[in-house]
Amino acid sequence: MTFCEKKAVVLLSGGLDSTTTLAIALSEGFECHCLSFAYGQRHLNELEAARDIARSFHVKNHLILRLDIGHIGGSALTGAIDVPKQRNLLEIQTGIPVTYVPARNTIFLSCALAWAEALSAPHIFIGVNAIDYSGYPDCRPEFISAFEKMANLAVKAAVEGKMPILIRTPLIHMTKADIIRTGIRLGVDYSLTHSCYDPSPDGSACGQCDSCLLRLRGFEEAGIPDPIKYATL
Fold first, then answer.
1. Among candidates 86, 65, 211, which has minimal Cα distance to 136?
2. In degrees to the nearest 10, what's the CA dihedral of 25, 212, 14, 26?
3. Rounded alpha-carbon distances, angstroms, from residue 186 to 9, 128, 132
4. Arithmetic mean of pLDDT over the chain
5. How many angstroms from the chain centroid is the CA of residue 65?
6. For residue 61, what is the enclosing H or E element?
7. Which of 3, 74, 212, 223 is most buried, judged by most C-beta within 10 A?
8. CATH class of this structure's domain 7-194
């Protein structure tokens, strides 16, 4: 197997963070193969956004895997559990919320790892963030480091010494405002992105869930208007 040093799999949810991560990977000269998931989420707005974003960036590939982990349950994003609304920043950053999807990033990264090996792509980009994060344990640097170590013990290409696996997390120590400023500098059209956990039937963001509140705060701190439509603003 011959791997390409500038080839990458990029996890693309359709949200602000993953879109900025894609823009960073492209700005660094990577050939990007985007991976999204129909995982049993309550709405498909984010997948529609991911398609639009991948198309706008003219990426090499955009693969949408059907992987219905919604049957496992345990999350407000996949089941009949109310999405928390109007929480303050302290509440958002305390504990693990019901919007946590059991083992989601572990599952997504495992699929990305398989595709990366098949593509001979040594880099996997994921837009996790450990500063403005919402309490998700699989967004922490410790998790990413452990997964990268496991990945290099798990796949044929790495074990045979033909292709080391690198998990790239360019946003992990950035504030939401810094992420937005970076994306604007790289030409990201944030009107294409979708962040809301509980959008209206017309696709408008609720403006009250944790994800919306962190997004709005980020745009405010960056001094840049948020271009998406909100149902409550």
1. 211
2. -10
3. 19, 19, 21
4. 93
5. 15
6. strand 61-66
7. 212
8. alpha beta
**pLDDT confidence of 43, banded at 50, 70, 90?**
confident
Confidence of residue 95 (pLDDT cuts 50, 70, 90): confident
Residue with tokens 């509140």: 213
33 forms beta bridges with 9, 61
Collect all residues with Cβ–Cβ distance below 8 Å to 146 and sequence separation of at least 6: none
Contact (Cβ atoms closer than 8 angstroms) between residue 193 and residue 14: yes
For residue 188, pLDDT beyond 80: yes
The pLDDT of residue 3: 63
Using DSSP's 3-state secondary structure scheme, residue 147 falls into helix
Q: Tens digits of per-residue pLDDT, 44-84?
A: 899 999 999 999 999 999 999 999 898 888 999 998 899 99
Single-letter code of the amino acid located at 100? Y
Please state the φ and ψ torsions of residue 84, each to the nearest 5 degrees. -60, 140
